[in-house]
Amino acid sequence: MSNVDELEIDKFSQLAHKWWDMESEFKPLHDINPLRLEYIDSFAGIAERRVVDVGCGGGILAESMAVKGAIVTGIDLAKKSLKVAQLHSLESGVQVDYRCVAVETLAEEAPESYDVVTCMEMLEHVPDPESVVRSCARLVKPGGWVFFSTLNRNARAYLLAVVGAEYVLNMLPRGTHDYARFLKPSELSRMARHAGLEICDVRGMSYNPVTRIYALGEDTQVNYLMATRRPAN
Questions:
Q1: CATH fold group of domain 6-229
Q2: Fewer CB under 10 Å: which end of the chain, C or N?
Q3: How far from 153 is each of 45, 158, 159, CA to CA, in Å?
Q4: Dist. CA 104–CA 100, nearest whole Å
């Protein structure tokens, strides 16, 4: 697939064995996962819904949605991460169908097949995020929900998400993020609308380095989530 950055795949593959270590480089994902899950469930009511998690990595969000009662497929192109996800699913007994497939390919194979599509912390790691947004819109059924989360592109986001998180607080490995690939909410909104999705909500996610607690709020200057919906026919 053309919409793949092999350096990004290699980066996450080297860390794959740490996906479920809650004190590792993936600690921030474990910490924000309850917020992501609650946000998604509050709009979509995922119990018994068919859900696909695009860029599922080691399965942190995918498993938590399955625990909520969703019928979950997780897709990623990092084979080592998927292997870790599959092994953890066996250990936990939480059933998730993991596939090594690009979202563009799955959209061709199974359009309008899912009630909910999630694409979290993934758009900033691909060369063409708009292609991913279009494919997510193709995968969801009319009336279904598509959720994105990513990083805003501004000086504050650079200072906190790159300099602060990677070089000062050492919360993430250096080189995790490429600032040039961050997306402003206006840019992601435009991509979503062009793909036929309605923007229903944009919510910021902030981190307090003193309390070490993440929270959702109105401040979208660094991390943000976006809830979109495909209009019913």
A1: Rossmann fold (3.40.50)
A2: C
A3: 31, 7, 11
A4: 12
Tell me the C-alpha distance between 131 and 139, whole Å.
12
What tens digit of pLDDT does each residue of 125-154 get? 899 999 999 999 999 999 999 999 998 988
pTM (2 d.p.): 0.91
Burial degree of 167 (CB within 10 A; 0-12, 13-18, 19+): exposed
* pLDDT tens digits, one per residue of 172-202: 555 566 657 889 999 999 999 999 999 999 9
Residue with tokens 């169908």: 97
Sequence ranges of the domains in the chain: 6-229
> Where is average pLDDT lowest: 62-71, 109-118, 186-195, 209-218?
209-218
Question: Rounded to whole angstroms, what are the CA distances from 67 to 8, 64, 92, 96, 134?
Answer: 29, 5, 10, 10, 28
Phi, psi of 79 (to 5 degrees): -65, -35
pLDDT over threshold 90, residue 168: no
Q: How far apart are CA 112 and CA 104, in angstroms?
A: 13
- Measured distance CA(58)–CA(85) in Å, rounded: 4
Q: At what angle do helices 79-92 and 6-14 cross, to 10 degrees?
A: 40
Nearest to 57 by CA among 100, 7, 110: 100
